[in-house]
Write a structure and sequence with these properties.
Two copies of one chain form a homodimer.
Chain A (H helix, E strand, L loop, with lengths): L7 E4 L7 H11 L1 H4 L2 E4 L2 H11 L5 E5 L11 E5 L18 H19 L5 E4 L4 H6 L7 H13 L11 E5 L4 E4 L6 H7 L2 H15 L8 E5 L14 H15 L3 E6 L1 H8 L12 E4 L2 H10 L6 E5 L5 E4 L16 H15 L3
Parallel strand pairs in A: 1-2, 1-5, 2-4, 3-4, 5-12, 7-10, 8-9, 8-10
Antiparallel strand pairs in A: 6-7, 6-11, 11-12
Helix pairs in contact in A: 1-3, 4-6, 8-9
């Protein structure tokens, strides 16, 4: 069995959030795409989600390993990791629960191990709840850090398991943005900028984007300061750090331009043909909000979060557990669907 | 003659840029709106602009003061300040020229004096060139600083002419943004944030927006840090500065909410009815690019720059002299038209 035939592994996420429901909705709404996917989760939680959505004709089909998913219609294939504790579907939806948090961790671990054993070709993660993880004593602040550690443990070739540098990419129908810094104060983010960190971001971006665009990815780099520093008048990070990083990337034959004024580069990279074809395939932004403000401006319904730099493909919908919607069957599967589609594109040409 | 009948004063800008041409195009394309406007500039430069645009049937009508504009059609009314030097229309378009820079300064001075004498009801400034001003030894870095000084000189009631606090508002069809900090490095902008500076911005915003929206303006405040600081985890400016400023503004009966996560508040304030009516009338942003990235994301064709806090209305198109387009007649008057429309709205209900 070749890797191309291995399914995308869709982890259930927090059993008390909207994750199980939007997975069910995805299967109902996107049968073609879903043929290449399997849920990693608890069968009873997924049966409850079928009820929430009102999918009466459907049933859960439990498989013993991801590669053995069924081909029947109106069937939700679920691979249940052995270490999952019982009774998860008895926990009421809509709130923080430590058992539900631990179960979400078990599913992610199992999925990554399956990826390592070539039983899956990529992972799409339904939302977990960070405060629930904290309550349950989970050591990781979120998905990304956990995936970094698991990747280091499983894929490391040397004696020491070093964390791989990863970057967050946010995408929607019109724009792709990769962030150099993420979850820290704006002051600390500025302090954290280095030539090496920016070059590393450009390398990761260039490598990952090759799966999505023909030829060399056209990378635009946004400056940090107003007008990209106006030749040093409004800050020197463009001269000291960003410019030299771009030079280095060009020496490595990447198609990188900038640093551009932050207030117009995202407009230039917006892809809305035929009137407005993008000038660039992706924008690298120095800070969380320079990058995410334009990605989210037109709405978050189709936003996808992609973790770049891991030894496997990982995408996720760009929203949380939405406890207030859990159990209603009303949550939209649009972002999850976009995440599966992106994972599918990335894995079809992943090297 | 009452102030309401006084015209909007449209300053010519740099004679070598696209300013004169887009003024002509505005008169050709927007006759209704233009009836309430007059050019403050050089008649020969404006005649040359009529030629660039190919408006053969049109001619310039020079008036001796702004209130005496003609009512005929196919006529461009121009008020020529007496101190304007001769020969301006002999300077080739498309480059930096000190005489052209000085002339743009004379027009602005004359227009503001006319405003002070109630011969105009607001000013719309066509683009000047900052490097040309610098070359010509003009003491101001740009329009805004010059207008602040002129306002202090002419409108000051006490002995000392204090600079009035002003703020930059950028608007388009969907979004209004007011900036707390503008042209400095991102580091310096963070250092420059104070409770008083933010409260002042909220007061100026609240007062100015009353001319544009019914009732109390709904003001959203964007945080500085990712997730608006996540309760102090990613920076404390929201707790130390922005939160207390919002509290103060509420004590003064303003409708102010926030601080909100920067990456989603602009999406929420985007006005695209009926699908997406805005939750807020304006967003106050801490930094230049947090505010301008979303305003410019969908394009700058209809962007308008408004200087809030002056004793008069001032708007301008959101672009520069575009030397590469000057003389071709191809530059778009869309942003200038939007700027005139905004000035018209602001002055119709300006108190």
């Amino acid at each position: 069995m070749t890797l191309a035939m291995a399914p995308l592994l869709l982890t259930m996420g927090d059993a008390c959030g909207i994750g199980p429901e939007i997975l069910v909705k995805f299967w109902l709404e996107q049968p073609q795409l879903a043929r290449h996917c399997i849920v990693v989760g608890d069968p009873d939680v997924m049966r409850r989600a079928l009820e929430f959505v009102g999918a009466k004709a459907w049933h859960v089909h439990v498989v013993s390993e991801p590669l053995l998913r069924p081909a029947e219609s109106a069937v939700l294939p679920v691979w249940c990791p052995v270490r999952l504790e019982a009774g998860l579907s008895q926990i009421p939806v809509g709130g923080v629960d430590a058992r539900s948090a631990r179960a979400s961790v078990v599913c992610i671990e199992a999925a990554v191990q399956a990826l390592h054993q070539q039983q899956g070709r990529g992972i799409v993660t339904a939302p977990i709840h960070k405060a629930a993880w904290h309550l349950a004593g989970v050591a990781y602040p979120g998905h990304t850090e956990m995936l970094q550690v698991l990747a280091a443990q499983l894929w490391a070739s040397g004696q020491q398991a070093l964390l791989l540098p990863v970057r967050m990419m946010l995408t929607n129908d019109q724009l792709r943005v990769v962030l150099v810094t993420v979850h820290q104060s704006l002051r600390q983010a500025i302090d954290a900028l280095t030539v090496e960190g920016i070059v590393q971001t450009l390398r990761i971006t260039d490598k990952s984007l090759r799966a999505l665009v023909p030829g060399n990815p056209r990378i635009a780099v946004a400056g940090l300061n107003p007008h990209a520093g106006e030749n040093g008048l409004f800050g020197d990070e463009e001269i000291r750090l960003i410019g030299p990083a771009i030079e280095q990337a060009r020496l490595e034959n990447m198609d990188v331009q900038g640093p551009f004024a932050p207030d117009t580069v995202f407009m230039r990279a917006r892809h809305a043909p035929p009137e407005h074809p993008a000038e660039f395939d992706v924008v690298v932004a120095m800070t969380h909000d320079h990058g995410l403000i334009p990605v989210k401006y037109l709405g978050v319904d189709h936003g996808v979060n992609v973790t770049l730099g891991l030894p496997f493909v990982r995408t996720s919908p760009d929203h949380g557990t939405a406890f207030d919607l859990a159990g209603t069957g009303l949550a939209s599967a649009a972002s999850l669907t976009a995440a599966v589609r992106m994972a599918s594109q990335l894995t079809n040409s992943f090297k």
